[in-house]
Amino acid sequence: MDECQTSENFMSSKEQTISHAKDAEEIDKEQNKQDQVSLKTIDELREEHIERIAALESQLQESIQRERDAFLRSRAEVENIRRRAEQDLERVHKFALEKFSNELLPVIDNLERAVDLANQSNINLLSMIEGIKLTLKSMLDTVRKFGIEQVDEIDVPFNPALHQAMTLMESDQHKSNHVMMVMQKGYTLNGRLIRPAMVAVSKAKSL
Fold first, then answer.
1. Do 139 and 164 belong together in one domain?
2. Fewer CB within 10 Å, N- or C-terminus of the chain?
3. What ranges does the record list as Basic and acidic residues composition bias (predicted)?
4. pTM above the 0.70 mark?
5. Measured distance CA(196)–CA(193) in Å, rounded
6. Number of domains the chain contains
7. Residue 155's domain is classified under what CATH number?
């Protein structure tokens, strides 16, 4: 009976060992599953963080680009306003100068006419004539500083952008379609015509 009991005890101990081994194996499997789940969870979290960081970086870049675009638009608008203000100021300045010039031209015409019609042989008038000439020269020098120039050349081709033909005259001393005589001087302001020169234009003699 003791042998049977011993045998039974041995079998029971062996079964317990096997049972413990199975339990340990099950525990290891469960632990492995949990480890795999943990690794998967960590990978998923890492991926989520990467995606979130990428999304935040994208939003940041978009925000920076919007701010940059807004800054560039604002700067361009300021530049346009400044340019328009300068153009408006220039137009006002040119308009005021042109108006002043047009008011001044008849005065210059009268001074030139006075010199041309004065009796140069009258000794009593010489000092007055010289005074008028000096006044005229001073005035022309002054207006020239503001960009006003005379159009008074002769023997130059007729230019409708500068001249107003008052008459056509036959001439064998001038080339055809050239300015023979200036009846009234023209003027330009900074290269732009403000009054055409009134001229006589030559034409070829009839055969």
1. no
2. C
3. 20-33
4. no
5. 7
6. 2
7. 2.30.22.10
